[in-house]
Amino acid sequence: MYRVTLALMQLCDVFLGLGEENFTGVLRTISMGKLKTYHLYERLKARAHLAKLNSETLRRASPRLWTRLSERQDEFATDLAQSILISHLDMIIAVLNYLGVPHEDGFFPKDADVSQHLTPGWEDRAWQEFSERYPKPALLFYINHLAWEVGKTEQVYLPAA
User: Under a CB-based contact definition with an 8 Å cutoff, are residues 83 and 53 in contact?
Assistant: First the structure.
């Protein structure tokens, strides 16, 4: 396992720490249907500064979006993360169930502290269990997002090659 240490990590750091290749890969997994279902489609389209939002335009915009993350545009990072996560609720539910983390259909109750459920090595266990079932960039993003959100980690998790 390799870790990149970042002081006072922000959501942009999660994206940047995973690298541009994983970023491009995770963009490809965003579901337009789920964005529309959860009323995030127009919001992402506006935040991404795209006249038209579909898988192709998102893929082509990847270099520009990466630059915006590099410029520390945290509100954009938040909306992009929501779009990625909502596209993978089935994976999120499976990971949380596997880890024994209490949730409500993949969401945490307000002010819930679930950090005690993330025991040492949980990232490796989750990666090993799910990396063959779900898109690797999406799983890697979720593991890091969960660590950032719950554990307030200062490191980006990257599994050993």
Answer: no
Tokens of 31: 């579901």
pLDDT in tens, 59-79: 999 999 999 999 999 999 999
CB 30 within 8 A of CB 45: no
| Measured CA distances, 89 to 13, 20, 35, 86, 123 (Å) | 22, 23, 12, 5, 18
Whole-angstrom Cα distance, residue 14 to residue 26? 13
Q: What angle do CA 149, 151, 157 make, to 5 degrees?
A: 85
Q: Residue 109 has what DSSP assignment? A: P
Interatomic CA distance for residues 95 and 143, integer angstroms: 9
Domain hosting residue 8, numbered range: 2-158
Looking at the 3D structure of the chain, how many domains does it have? 1
Model pTM score: 0.91
